[in-house]
Amino acid sequence: MRDLEYYNSFWYRFTRPIKRAWFKFLFSRDKLIKVDDRHRGIGKTYMMIEKSIKYNIPIIAGSQQQMDSIKRNGNPCEVYGFAKNFTKGVLGQQFPNGIIIDESVDPKLIPELEARFKIRGGFIQNYGSDKQ
Predict the structure, then answer these.
(1) What does the pLDDT look like over 33-46, one tens digit per residue?
(2) Which residues neighbour 119 within 8 Å (Cβ) at sequence distance 6 or greater?
(3) Which domain holds residue 12?
């Protein structure tokens, strides 16, 4: 219930367009942008889909649920899954235009993608370190 109050608050509605413009600028620079729960609802997935279609760049997602979310409404972009035990499909591909990374991809797997492909932008989880 408390989250709903935040998303209906004046402060959230006031800062959302500012955050959206800032993220759009950062995303255009082909960098990975760290995000957390404060960055919900600003259009990150839409930005990825838009860039994917415009430049013919596939999106790499970390779960089937996120892949389905990106492909909903018949979006004509390529989406591939890349998770801990599901890497062979992506690593065997050739992506001449690079890749876009969704925040659902495990941050520990990003170096493996960086070694093989040019990263053309995306979002990465910034939820702190795993202390195991």
Answers:
(1) 888 877 777 888 88
(2) 30, 32, 98, 99, 100, 101, 113
(3) 2-125
